[in-house]
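wait is this the right file?? whatever heres the structure
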């Protein structure tokens, strides 16, 4: 099935996209927008499988622009918080044919596109337009090799994942991958056209794009698109959106839980069918707090970019949710692989491996990463876990080096390399340290060159000029020597624990 076909479920007059203070867009309007966008891109010589980067603020136009582009070309939503260097890397790596930004955008992405000769398309929103309704600025006409709606096997979306190397890996997802994942999430959560999702997730990350947007649209239900998470405005949005559910990362649930007491009236007015959490481990105590506050089940799921998000999920009642477990296979098949390569039985700990129709065909232009990641037809997640006798998966650890900062992933090697560019830095190791709210925070240990002096703040500012703020180490320790493990190698995983570094740990009730 193609993505366009996926959008046919919603009734013409049913609301597809809504937003604070805006008139809603119905499915008839959304489908017309998809057709018009396909025609505009094709007329400008941009067609199937061509890469189009999107840098837009979160909100209804980001949602519709992504959906419309994914139906026609290879869409590549990028984090608007990236710095110039990052945009240049991504636009170049994608071989982007165009970059879509809002009208008059001051984003450094525009400068990066101009430098690389990438066409810049401005997204124009008319005064009083329905939520998500847009047109493109005038584009020069050009012949299009392969136009019309994208086919299921075409690349519909390209995202990057932080890898074990310093450069992010390019993950192409076909229309078929996205359709399979959206359908599976919709089935897990039993979406109906009556549902209204309150989207607070960023729409450049797989979680928001699939669970927040495509899955509910596939069921003909409504998505209320906010400008992004804001714990103070969350309850106001609840009153306006009248949602039946929302999905978020644990850090957001924590901030929402801390304000629940003052918003009991709003909570009473809008009973939710369920709340969903994914992208990082949800502390069991917080699950309890959210369930009590919303009087609704908290459905914890386990997702990953390479699997087009959902891999496992706890089920809705009356089936059992298990705290501390990310649920049962919820899309791809799940196996636990032992060190000798064989699949392990229930109760045994090994690497979580997956296979199925939502899993990417492979990283682009990266045979080394593919050779490491795909084995005997399975994709290795780099997570360590265990299945119980009833097929519920628990994540017990991580074999890969990424830092999971409240759902945002940081590659420590990317930051190592930047810090090494500083004239005073001789050696560095970036690692994740436990953090009370975020789960993990970025930290670093640095050895300075003899006779050099440099403050934590100076190094942080040096990194912040090159990468988005969330990747900057919040704590930098200056040492005479980097700690080597028993094997003589630097070991990032578990380093914070070994040296006793942390930013507090989560305590129930103490928010
Ligand atoms: P991403 O590609 O950003 O979605 O990140 C995928 C990674 O996030 C997974 O490989 C896990 O390490 C982590 N992750 C996602 N969901 C969960 C969860 N429910 N519990 C623990 N870790 C999770």
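ok assuming it is, sequence goes like this
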């Amino acid at each position: 099935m193609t993505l366009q076909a996926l959008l046919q479920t919603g009734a013409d007059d049913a609301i597809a996209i809504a937003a604070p203070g805006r008139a809603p867009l119905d499915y008839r309007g959304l489908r017309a927008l998809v057709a018009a966008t396909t025609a505009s891109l094709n007329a400008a010589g941009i067609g199937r499988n061509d890469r189009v980067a999107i840098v837009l603020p979160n909100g209804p136009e980001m949602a519709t622009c992504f959906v419309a582009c994914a139906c026609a070309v290879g869409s590549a939503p990028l984090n608007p918080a990236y710095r110039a260097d990052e945009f240049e890397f991504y636009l170049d790596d994608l071989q982007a044919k165009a970059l879509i930004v809002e009208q008059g955008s001051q984003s450094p992405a525009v400068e990066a596109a101009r430098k690389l000769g990438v066409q810049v398309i401005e997204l124009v929103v008319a005064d009083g337009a329905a939520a998500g309704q847009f047109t493109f600025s005038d584009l020069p006409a050009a012949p299009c090799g392969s136009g019309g709606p994208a086919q299921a096997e075409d690349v519909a979306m390209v995202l990057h994942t932080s890898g074990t190397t310093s450069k992010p890996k390019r993950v192409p997802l076909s229309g078929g991958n996205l359709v399979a994942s959206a359908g599976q999430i919709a089935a897990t959560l039993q979406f109906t056209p009556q549902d209204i999702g309150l989207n607070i997730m960023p729409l450049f990350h797989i979680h928001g794009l699939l669970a927040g947007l495509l899955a509910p649209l596939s069921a003909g239900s409504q998505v209320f698109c906010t400008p992004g998470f804001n714990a103070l405005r969350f309850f106001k949005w609840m009153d306006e959106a009248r949602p039946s559910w929302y999905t978020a990362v644990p850090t957001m649930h924590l901030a929402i839980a801390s304000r629940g007491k003052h918003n009991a009236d709003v909570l009473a007015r809008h009973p939710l069918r369920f709340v969903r959490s994914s992208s990082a481990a949800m502390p069991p105590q917080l699950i309890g707090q959210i369930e009590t506050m919303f009087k609704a089940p908290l459905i914890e799921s386990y997702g990953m970019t390479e699997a087009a998000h959902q891999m496992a999920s706890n089920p809705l009642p009356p089936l059992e949710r298990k705290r501390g477990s990310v649920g049962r296979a919820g899309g791809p098949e799940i196996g636990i692989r032992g060190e000798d390569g064989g699949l392990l039985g229930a109760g045994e700990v090994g690497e979580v491996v997956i296979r199925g129709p939502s899993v990417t065909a492979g990283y682009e232009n990266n045979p080394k990463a593919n050779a490491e990641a795909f084995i005997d037809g399975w994709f290795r997640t780099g997570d360590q876990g265990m299945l119980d006798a009833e097929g519920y998966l628990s994540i017990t650890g991580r074999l890969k080096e990424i830092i999971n900062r409240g759902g945002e992933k940081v590659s420590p090697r990317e930051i190592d390399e930047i810090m090494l560019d500083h004239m005073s830095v001789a050696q560095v190791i970036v690692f994740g340290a436990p953090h009370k709210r975020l789960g993990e925070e970025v930290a670093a240990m640095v050895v300075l060159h003899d006779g050099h002096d440099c403050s934590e703040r100076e190094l942080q500012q040096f990194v912040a000029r090159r990468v988005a703020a969330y990747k900057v180490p919040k704590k930098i320790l200056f040492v005479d020597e980097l700690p080597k493990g028993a094997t003589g190698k630097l070991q990032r995983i578990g380093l914070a624990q070994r040296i006793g570094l942390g930013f507090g740990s989560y305590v129930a009730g103490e928010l």
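DSSP finds 15 helices and 26 strands in the chain. so i think its the right one actually
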